Amino acid sequence: MTIAAAMVWAGVQMCAGQTPAVQSAQGPDSAARQPSMLDRLNQMMAGGKSAWSEEQLHTMEQLRDAAMKSDYAYNELQHLTDNIGPRLSGSLQAQKAVDYVAGEMRALGAVVTLEKAPVPHWVRGIETGELTTWQGQAPGTTQKIVLTALGGSVATPPEGITAEVMVVDNWSQLHALPAGAVKGKILLFNHPFDKELAATGHGLEAYGDSVVYRAVGPIAGAAVGAVAVLVRSVGGADFRLPHTGMTEYAPGTQKIPAAAVTAEDAELLKVLAGQGPVTMHLTLTPQTLPDADSYNVIADWKGTEHPEQVVVVSGHLDSWDLGTGAIDDGAGVVVSMQAIQLMKELGLHPRRTVRVIAWMSEEEGSEGAAAYMKEHAAEMGNHVGAIESDLGADHPTGIYYAGKPELGRWLRPVSMVLDANGAGSLESAPETGEDIAGMTEKGVPSFAPVQDSRFYFNYHHTAADTFDKIDKKHLNENAAIMAVLAYALADSPDPAAR
Description:
CATH architecture of the largest domain: 3-Layer(aba) Sandwich
Distance between the termini: 26 Å
Strand content: 15-25%
Helix content: 25-40%
Number of helices: 15
Shape: elongated
CATH topology of the largest domain: Aminopeptidase
Strand order of the largest sheet: 1-16-15-17-14-12-13-11-2
CATH class of the largest domain: Alpha Beta
Structural class: alpha/beta
Radius of gyration: 24 Å
């Protein structure tokens, strides 16, 4: 998940189960007035006329139930993570994953295309930090600081740098420092991730509040003369795990090395710096190699009536290199793949084409998505829906939708099918995924599973993003949403409103 992907949140539109309508006391001219509470209750409970027949709704139930019984997504994810491993853009593992997903989709009978996308090729090197002087130090000792380079960071000199550490909690504290206070020093942004906010199910909001320091910290640090920037890890589990992620540099501003430190070490540095001068020796040796050629994997399950009309079902195939990318975003890829697998299993061929896309390089700038928008610019009018899963694999509670407000009412019969899995909510959002954001901007109705975000940022972009974090039942619940929604969009008599 990239920086921009943190901005997916909005107001809530909850949907209830199907019950008899509540009789309204409004007169015959009520349509000209604002809907009463009873009118709104009628809409929520009864849902109005369904865009789908009873037979189609039954098919959606079959897709839901088949997903819950399946081993497909779980087994595919285990292979991607345990056998292929981390899939950083430009790496050999990323190319292996492209070939593997393409082969699996061909085996199901999908029409597969590999669409080229130039991607960054950044390689992590040595990354070490140690305190060299601080108050109360035993003579001749150092103290280890656990850190990891941020994606896209430049390197220190091979021998590293030694400098005093300056700690600020936020932008206000940085701006309040005297001129020249940071010059020649290592600047640490010690902005805590709001674990209490995340614990209430608002992990995206907590992430969005903190990730800005990771994103532009090096720009702000360079502007005040810092020789390097450290950022407190953007995540919730304080198990001395550093969280990596992409950082940014501004044209015309010096590029300085950047790393994330663990929450524990950020607090240590703040305490020690409050006692007196603290110096650190920092070594980072990443390399930015020439861009590499990579690919989006595109697998089409051709429509029977309108094959030119496309419903995109997607997740991003690349991952950071510390872990094996199980929750970010191998899970999103395999639940997308399963949409086609389930349709083949049930012998379903909707009116429109279901297009599974495994995006490349979402983490380092969404180059795969940009290449797709360029290649298919003239076809956006025939893209009738786009779905992306990029928030892990915990229990989903419903569907985010971005587009016209009536999408919520239109989708209510679909949400009732998913309510059996506890996923019956419908929530309006400004956008639903980084890779499909360009389609959203072009007016394509877009969607994503609403997922439990309480724990996702404990593991996000860390060495702990591994297959053992996957709950098979929850993964299958996510697969059910992707398959049911893909079928609903692809087989409705009329396309979703745009």
